[in-house]
Amino acid sequence: MKPSSSARPELPWLRAFTFTIFGTSVLVSSYFPKFYAGLGFSSSQIGILYALGPMISLVANLLWSIASDKYRTIKKIMLILLIGEIILCTVLSASTSFSVVVLVITIFYFFYYPVFPLSDTIAINAAQRYNKSFITVRIFGSIGYAFFALVIGYVLSFVGSSHTMTVMIAIAAAALLITLFIKDQASPVAKMDLSGIWGILKQKELLWFFGCVFSLGIAVRMNDAFLTVTLNELGASEKIIGWSQFASSVSEIPIFLLLSLYGEKIKELPLLVFASLAFAARFLLVGIADSAVAIVAIQMLHSLSFGVFYVTAIRMLTRLIPDEYRATGMALYTIVWSSASGLLSGTLGGVVFEEFGRQNFYFTAMSFAMLACLGFASRYFFRGPRMLPNQVPAGTAATETKPAMEESAG
Fold this sequence. Notes:
It is a single chain. The protein has helices spanning 10-38, 43-71, 75-93, 98-112, 115-129, 135-159, 164-179, 197-201, 204-233, 238-262, 268-288, 292-298, 302-320, 326-383. By secondary structure, the protein is mostly helical. The chain has a single domain (7-405), classed as Up-down Bundle (Growth Hormone, Chain: A), CATH 1.20.1250.
């Protein structure tokens, strides 16, 4: 049965919500580190604060998904999460002690991270009801990220980075208001099938893939955590930081569209090798860059690195993971790519940055990216790309599995 045309306004509200919520992602990934630096925290302390996020996300995503399933609602859970964000940011704005900030930001992450997979779930289901592609909703996240990267940069350049939490509260409040107009639905968020983990881990091909992803994830999360610190070290203003995030976010849009349409004509492993090389080149260039403007230009490589990797990695997972273990495999992938790598890169990266300097920090990130590149290449050249018996059709939309791996666009 076709949905009535009177229900169509649901999609515009979802697009508006997706657009707005990515403004909070800009702040957390790009301006929170500068806020911490303004409080006088060291690079290693900032690394610890960054590492807390992935660690908390392991628990938070699961618990809020269970709550959403139990009470058969996503909208009400979303309202609770956004209200929690606003309250915690209010407390954080008045915190100056490192120990207090650690406590508050830990609780904040508990409310912050689950917003993205749950919002993507609503968008995917709504898009399917109206026979639309999820990309028609999700692309507004990239547009929103680019928009807020510029606007927030200019706003904070006028009011100062000390007002970062005020801006965060304003954007979260706007998202909260939009949520009131979104149609609620029961949560179909997939639960991790613990019985399926052993079946997945018996696949050597998948273990090899996860190992390469983990190595690349460390490199990427190192850059995510310290790009703003690097720009700050080079004397960049909030406006320049905003332009760097704008450049990366805008660059990924055409790549997402192109690979969603034509990417399946190219084997996954060559694309992953290419993306890893692009990451390595990107980190090398950031390491030797001597100006903030140069780093903004280098951010355009985000399209060839993250853009290519993201779509291709999801596509490869649909080939490697049997249907009955898909939810478990995607959960494991999220842990490897985002949570575990983020935890290690935050703690390790902070020490490397502080003790050995920015250049060696990015050379270390480049080394992890090259290690991933060699891993993907060795599997391609010595094993050969091959179709697995459990693969699904290549046309599976990459963006439709996004909730399992929400990442920064940075």
